[in-house]
Amino acid sequence: MVPRGEQTLLVSFQGRQVAVHSSVVGVLDGVRHQFRSMTTAEPSDVIAALVVGQNGNRYGLFERGHDLVVATSITNILEHVSFVVTARLVEAHAELLWFHAACAATERRTVIIAAPWGHGKSTLAAGLAARGWSLLSDDLVPIDPRAGIIHAFPRLPMVRQNSGRVLSRDELLHVAKTESAIVEDPGPRPVSDLGGLLFPTFGHASSTELVQCAPAAAALELLKHCRNFGEHRESAVRYVAELAERAPAFRLSYSNGERAAACVDHTMRAEAISGPA
User: Are 138 and 155 in contact (CB under 8 A)?
Assistant: First the structure.
């Protein structure tokens, strides 16, 4: 039931929807901006309903009548809304493998870029988008292991400003972000198009270096970034091992995002690329 006087926006992924209700000026526009092509006005299978309210200079996020979070700015409350909407969609599609990664594609190859916070996923993905790649996802990559499909998850990409040094996780929470390349939904890509797995590491004053790694090492690294590994365990291990055998994997160290993107672009667009090491 829609709360009285409030408008509703639906965020949809693969037929499941999260409803966001609010009468607060700027909230629904902010959610629409964040999720872009994932929003709709037509309800179907709504699996969660969130409410954003305002009391003076404080904003609250509620679900089923319970307080989830209180924030003092609309920017901050929108970050929480984005996090909870994403979490509910992930929970609703537990059959998929969800990776903390970015994903970009050309007409011939798809590349998954997996790394922890602050290691340059978004920077590298934005650099590839500037070179004509389609950006399927900036931060979360869902794969259907049964259908062999990589889905787009087109949230608005946000790139942290370069501080000139490697930051701790706590410091990363306070670094300003800027909007990056627009993620559109180009539709699912077959896993057979997977042309590479990238594991970037940002280091101040590091030279750009792309080094191929063995399938076993690549599989272990990718499993670290599987958000719902606990729900799949052995099947996830088997599937990721198959991916690592199928696609070449690289460790990328860099300090300059443009040079790193140019290096990856050149390598992945090459006519011939060697198989796994």
Answer: yes
pLDDT digits (tens, 9 = 90+) for 14-41: 999 999 999 999 999 999 999 988 999 8
pLDDT digits (tens, 9 = 90+) for 216-269: 999 999 999 999 999 999 999 999 999 999 999 999 999 888 999 999 999 988
pLDDT the model gives residue 206:
79
pLDDT, residue 160, reads 46
Query: What predicted TM-score, i.e. pTM, was given to this entire model?
Result: 0.86
Q: What pLDDT score was predicted for residue 157?
A: 66
Distance CA 268, CA 243 (A): 17
Longest dimension (CA), the chain: 61
pLDDT for 167: 46
Return the bridge partners of 160, or none.
177
Cβ atoms of residues 260 and 254 within 8 Å: yes
The reported pLDDT for the residue numbered 251 is 96
* 77 and 69 Cβ atoms separated by less than 8 Å: yes
Q: What is the DSSP code string of the chain? A: -PPTT-EEEEEEETTEEEEEEE-STTHHHHHHHHHGGGEESS-SEEEEEEEEEEETTEEEEEETTEEEEEESSHHHHHHHHHHHHHHHHHHHTTTSEEESEEEEE-SS-EEEEE--TTSSHHHHHHHHHTTT-EEEESS-EEEETTTTEEPPB-PPPEEEPP-SS---HHHHTTS-EEE-SPP-----EEGGGEEEEEEEEE-TTPPPEEEEE-HHHHHHHHHHTBTTHHHHTHHHHHHHHHHHHHS-EEEEEES-HHHHHHHHHHHHHSS------
Q: Are 137 and 157 in contact (CB under 8 A)?
A: no
Contact of 21 with 6, CB cutoff 8 Å: yes
